[in-house]
Specification:
This protein has about 375 residues and is of the alpha+beta class. It has helices at about 35-50, 75-85, 85-95, 100, 140-155, 180-185, 190-210, 210-230, 235-245, 280-285, 285-295, 300-325, 330-345, 350-360, 365-375, and strands at about 15-20, 25-30, 55-60, 60-70, 105-115, 125-130, 160-165, 175-180, 255-260, 265-275. The structure holds (R)-mevalonate.
Length: about 375
């Protein structure tokens, strides 16, 4: 799949349980190195089951491809001429991928933008809106852009410079929402109402502060990326799109929303770009990704996006619930201790005992793990 290969880098592959998405039970493969992620998602999915699970939607799989046009003699004139030639440009772009066209995909629209302020002055940008159906679509879009570039140059009177897909896939959004009964959120000395209000306060912090929002959204991406990776999709593209979308108002903020409903229960919503595919790229070439897609039992990229955004919402709540109550370390430490024990050289048959002792002593550190191993 890549160049200069010297090996294969493996990650743990877990399966999150309890997810109901749009009424369907689904097991969710997750590839991730961080402890607590799979457990956190599974736990919140279990609570969401009590109110019917996650309701999720996905918009049409429309990607945006960009052409940067330089040295245009008259930007307004070029804009008008390009829009007038829309049908011709769309036809040429769609013809590039007959298979996609047969499946109902292809070029949908163009937009022409004049960016008045850049370090080198005015820029003319053409957006090609392309429906990529069940593919992530980077290859289809980039090929279409390269094909229409000479025509666009001729019509605009300029020269086409960059021809590349945008990862800010804000026309390919997925949304999940779920309700969590306040009573189900109670644990230890914390009442359900306390946990609910604590989660809402934690979310309000992320809305108001980019420093917190980055971490809040990272918690969402813990779940999102793990499924994206397990299914052979491009997690860097998803990350780029998510964070750009979180900053779309001009200020970076939370991707999710949490509130208390009329029944006093906690409701959550997550909306984000999710340009994922179930055909093309590594999704079919990588045997584990292929198996993961089979386990998910999805029949479209939209369905995959609906599941992923649901996992993101569940993951977000798992983190906020912990942060708003006992803190993140307690639940984390048991699993983290295993990694510390392994790093200190514990054999497979020693890991459990060493990890347990580290947790008991509240000293989850490699130096202590080494001492324990030496004493045995
Ligand atoms: C750690 O991987 C993720 C969290 O930091 C997310 C959050 O703070 O919301 C716990």
């Amino acid at each position: 799949m890549i160049e200069n290969v010297v090996g294969v880098f493996s990650l743990p592959l877990g399966v999150a349980a309890n997810f109901v998405v749009n009424g369907r039970d689904v097991l969710v493969p997750m590839a991730v190195e961080e402890p607590s992620v799979v457990a956190g998602a599974s736990f919140m999915a279990r609570l969401a089951r009590n109110t019917g699970g996650f309701r999720a939607t996905a918009s049409a799989p429309e990607m945006i491809g960009q052409l940067l046009i330089l040295d245009v003699p008259d930007a307004e004139q070029a804009r008008t001429a390009l829009l007038a030639a829309k049908a011709r440009i769309l036809q040429m772009a769609t013809a590039v991928d007959p298979v996609l066209a047969r499946l109902g995909g292809g070029a949908r629209d163009i937009e022409v933008r004049v960016l008045a302020e850049s370090p080198i002055g005015l820029l003319l940008v053409l957006h090609l809106i392309y429906d990529t159906r069940d593919a992530m679509g980077a290859n289809a879009v980039n090929t279409a852009l390269e094909t229409i570039a000479p025509l666009v140059a001729e019509i605009s009177g300029g020269r086409v410079h960059l021809r590349i897909l945008s990862n800010l896939a804000d026309r390919r959004l997925a949304t999940a929402s779920a309700t969590f009964r306040a009573a189900d959120l109670a644990f230890g000395e914390f009442s359900g109402a306390q946990v609910r209000d604590g989660v809402i306060a934690a979310w309000a912090f992320a809305v108001a502060d980019p420093y917190r929002a980055a971490t809040h959204n990272k918690g969402i991406m813990n779940g999102v990326d793990a499924v994206v990776l397990a299914t052979g999709n491009d997690w860097r593209a998803i990350e780029a799109g998510a964070h750009a979308y979180a900053a779309r108002s001009g200020r970076y903020t939370s991707l999710s929303t949490w509130a208390c409903n009329a029944d006093g229960d906690l409701t959550g919503t997550l909306e984000m770009p999710l340009a994922v595919g179930i055909v093309g790229g590594a999704t079919r070439a990588h045997p584990t990704a292929r198996a993961a897609l089979q386990v998910l039992g999805v029949s479209s990229a939209a369905e995959l996006a609906q599941i992923i955004v649901s996992v993101g919402l569940a993951q977000n709540l798992a983190a906020l619930r912990a942060l708003a109550t006992e803190g993140i370390q307690r639940g984390h430490m048991g699993l983290h201790a295993r990694q510390v024990a392994i790093a200190a050289g514990a054999r497979a048959d020693q890991v459990e005992a060493v990890a347990n002792q580290l947790v008991r002593e509240r000293a989850v550190r490699t130096d202590r793990a080494l001492e324990i191993l030496q004493a045995n």
